[in-house]
Amino acid sequence: MGIKVIAENRKARHNYEILEKLEVGLMLQGSEVKAMREGRANLTDGFARFKGDECYLQSIHIAPYVNGGYANHDPDRPRKVLMHKREMNRWMGKLKTKGLAAIPLKLYFNKRGFVKCELALARGKKLHDKRETLKKRVMDREAQAAIKSRRGG
């Protein structure tokens, strides 16, 4: 069966240099999980923030479940991240370094049906780095097209 991707933060790879990744769990309400099964989540502006000895995902929008009724959730509430104490302490130490941020890359259901989040430790890219990445991508694409045309395909 494998994993089913709910939402992906595609802008993250363009705006940030990914240094490290980590799979974490989330503490969710029932209506949030049901809304995610319908694919109604958005990670675009999301980030993780440490408060005391806990970590929370902020600015992640999970639309209300259509049949939720009175038991529906607040779409923009902070959601607690479930991670091991040792990992949390290591990441808190790294985040104190200037310029680093913890951002969610994707939300997905694992094989057992639990919602997981791929969290990344990232450093923001400057404008010239973004331009350089785009130039490299265009050059690679042109090189692949030239190789393909040479082969006759």
From TrEMBL:
It is found in: Cytoplasm. GO terms for molecular function: RNA binding. Pfam families: SmpB (PF01668). One of its GO terms (cellular component) is cytosol. One of its GO terms (biological process) is trans-translation-dependent protein tagging. Keywords: Cytoplasm, RNA-binding. Its main location: cytoplasm. Belongs to the SmpB family. Required for rescue of stalled ribosomes mediated by trans-translation. Binds to transfer-messenger RNA (tmRNA), required for stable association of tmRNA with ribosomes. tmRNA and SmpB together mimic tRNA shape, replacing the anticodon stem-loop with SmpB. tmRNA is encoded by the ssrA gene; the 2 termini fold to resemble tRNA(Ala) and it encodes a 'tag peptide', a short internal open reading frame. During trans-translation Ala-aminoacylated tmRNA acts like a tRNA, entering the A-site of stalled ribosomes, displacing the stalled mRNA. This is SsrA-binding protein. It comes from Sulfidibacter corallicola. The lineage of its organism: Bacteria, Pseudomonadati, Acidobacteriota, Holophagae, Acanthopleuribacterales. The gene is smpB.
